[in-house]
Amino acid sequence: MSKSDACVLSIDAGGTFLKAALVKGDGTLVENSFLRVPVNSHGSAGAISSSYRQLAVLGLAKARENNLDLSAVGVCIPGPFDYVEGKSLMTHKYASVKGLPMRPWLQESLGDIPVCFLHDSHAFLLGALWNSTVYGAERTAGVIIGTGLGFASMLNGRIYANLQNGPGISIFSRPYKGRTSEDYVSRRAILSRYCELTGCTPDTLDVVDIAGLAYQGQAEAQLVFKELGQHLSEIIHDILRDNHFEGLLLGGAISKSAGLFLPQLKNDLSDLPQLRYIAAADDIDMAPVFGAARAALFPLHYQYELT
């Protein structure tokens, strides 16, 4: 098959589902190739590996259905993880497969093709910037707000990483107001603050419900998102300033409601003259999938020092 007939299986490995799609070398999604396989990250090693094997079989079938050659696999997954060896080091989930090589689970059905693992924060930023005509800068930061709080950075086309190929700059556990940054900017932070203001219980609603109330004009819901913007700006202000970041992209499920906190965030970061843009990524859900595909298709260059 020719190069134009090649594709990669790009996997976004979450704790409850493995989401995947086939992506061509030019960054286009293969039509109707989206796949979703349940995975129990707290299950047995056999159950977890079975989900990955199932996804590999489905991905190969989709490629053949479209007369495409499945040439590589990209997997974005949170840390701690050995991204070179393809082994999870997590204990809060995927504990039963800690230290086990995951690459063979996929290669069993797909053959000895390259399987690239990368941090999910890096995948978001790589995907959000791929083929973008709007966003792009020599020094770009990404903030991912969802269950937790992630950060990624790209310097001169290279992902800035630590020696384990995780994020070179990490913010989730940074001390902030006597706690951690993630205690103020995350799903649980929004639910906790809203219930503190209204007297509700966190298990009766989710962030999307609070966002809906904010858009409808409820003062308490609007205040929660305004404060989120304030907290985030305080957490990342000096990082953006000291490292001369020129662009900031927002990802994660909560950034789908960025319109509720972007005005505050932009106002609080307006004293950074080098910061040319602050925006939510165009396709938040698919950015990590595209990023994992990009890492599988092209050599992933890391930078281990801030310059």
UniProtKB/TrEMBL annotation:
Enzyme class: transferase
A Pfam family it matches: ROK
UniProt xrefs under InterPro entries: ATPase_NBD (IPR043129), ROK (IPR000600)
Keyword Transferase annotated: yes
UniProt keywords, alphabetically: Kinase, Transferase
SUPFAM superfamilies, alphabetized: Actin-like ATPase domain
Keyword Transferase belongs to the record: yes
Protein name in the entry: Transcriptional regulator/sugar kinase
Organism per entry: Ruminiclostridium cellobioparum subsp. termitidis CT1112
Upper lineage: Bacteria, Bacillati, Bacillota, Clostridia, Eubacteriales
